[in-house]
Write a structure and sequence with these properties.
Low-confidence stretches: none
Bound molecules: phosphoenolpyruvate, manganese (II) ion
Number of helices: 11
Largest sheet: 9 strands, parallel
CATH topology of the largest domain: TIM Barrel
CATH superfamily of the largest domain: Aldolase class I
CATH architecture of the largest domain: Alpha-Beta Barrel
Length: 372
């Protein structure tokens, strides 16, 4: 059971103390407090654990400071969308960008930072096309230990400076170790915080629980967590819950295709049919990664690249974010060149996304009419 308290409830207030002392007296029930300090409101939620079946919603509703009582019906206690009375937010703001289950943000950018020139060419193209978000990998977990592992901390200063120069507000950047988060924080501070970073947990680390706890403990950076490519959806959603239970609710869940053994034409089996499923089960914005799903520049007879097709499939199903690989010269990319879109294809890609988004919005309006 979750008690959502009145906005801006102060932990030192008398009413709050009365509440906690009453909760302490409940038999076989313990509780955990989560406070999220926002720029305007502070939200406090109290999670009751143990024998809560014996408690009624009415009984808890009248306790001091309680605005709303939510009965937990999903295994994902914090991020889940519970069936009774759960209208908790499904969105957050970070560095001036809004992320939610109703919005769409495109994160086009480099799979891996390979030179200052490609970073600048990419960021300039993004600015020229009205974009404020990007992806830039500095720490690359690779299948082979002999493959390029990313430039790491050494590239961060110029990536952040260029982001500031071109008005980029959020960069999705994978981390695989605690030290990476510290290096990112230090490089941002050293360059005067010209941009923001969304920490990315890659598919190979979806169940790296110690990394999840660590990234979940900090609330400075939002987190994009990839679905594990060889585990169930439930296991991946529980991984996201690790982040949230440690305190970080600014979590985006990213579908990126699944490994199968069926001779697939794509690098991974595209799983974007799960966009509405994740939105139904949880309150997380849902991202799609068409590049790592498809893994090539294969083109259909209708003239569209498979990457465009699967992006449209995710967006028309309501995806909230698109993480996609681009490169100014894919033949020189150090990672995943074969799947990268050309920077010159960015305007066409964005138009195609807009067409699919418009179709999604029309579908939602039509569904509302049908059920009115
Ligand atoms: C990536 O987005 O750069 C990446 C490595 O993706 P994934 O973890 O999904 O393979
Ligand atoms: Mn890649």
């Amino acid at each position: 059971m979750i008690l959502v308290l009145e906005p801006n409830t102060r932990p030192e207030g008398t009413e709050y103390r009365m509440l906690t002392s009453q909760l302490e007296r409940l038999p076989n029930v313990s509780f955990r407090v989560h406070r999220e300090v926002g720029s305007e409101v502070t939200v406090t939620e109290i999670y009751l654990i143990g024998n809560t079946a014996a408690l009624t919603i009415e009984q808890m509703q009248v306790l001091p400071c309680v605005a709303k009582v939510v009965r937990v019906s999903e295994p994902y206690r914090v991020l889940g969308r519970h069936k009774q009375g759960d209208d908790r937010a499904s969105s957050f703001d970070y560095n001036g960008v809004h992320f939610g289950q109703d919005t769409l943000n495109v994160f086009a950018g480099l799979c891996a930072v390979d030179s200052r020139e490609s970073v600048e060419a990419m960021m300039k193209a993004l600015r020229d096309n009205g974009q404020v978000c990007t992806r830039m990998g500095a720490y690359k977990p690779r299948t082979s230990p002999y493959a390029f592992q990313g430039f790491g901390a050494s590239c961060l200063p110029y990536v952040y400076e260029l982001a500031g120069k071109y008005g980029i507000r959020v960069i999705s950047m994978e981390v695989t170790h605690e030290s990476h988060v510290d290096e990112i924080r230090e490089a941002l501070a050293a360059t005067g915080n010209p941009t923001g970073v969304m920490l990315q947990i890659g598919t190979r680390n979806t169940q790296n629980f110690e990394l999840l706890k660590l990234v979940g403990k900090q609330q400075e950076f939002p987190v994009l967590i990839k679905r594990g490519f060889g585990i169930t959806l439930d296991e991946s959603l529980n991984a996201a819950e690790y982040l949230a239970t440690e305190g970080n609710r600014k979590v985006v869940f990213c579908l990126r295709g699944m490994h199968t053994n069926m001779g697939d034409p794509h690098r991974n089996l595209v799983d974007f049919a799960h966009v509405p499923v994740v939105k139904r089960l949880t309150r997380m914005p849902v991202a799609i990664d068409p590049s790592h799903s498809v893994g090539s520049r294969a083109r259909a007879p209708d003239g569209l690249l498979d990457v465009f097709h699967v992006t449209a499939q995710g967006v028309i199903a309501g995806a909230n974010m698109v993480l996609v690989d681009f490169h100014p010269d894919p033949s020189r990319a150090l990672v995943d060149g074969p799947q990268a879109l050309l920077v010159s294809e960015l305007p066409h890609f964005l138009d195609d996304v807009a067409i699919a988004r418009e179709a999604y919005e029309k579908r939602v309006r039509r569904a509302r009419e049908a059920s009115a």
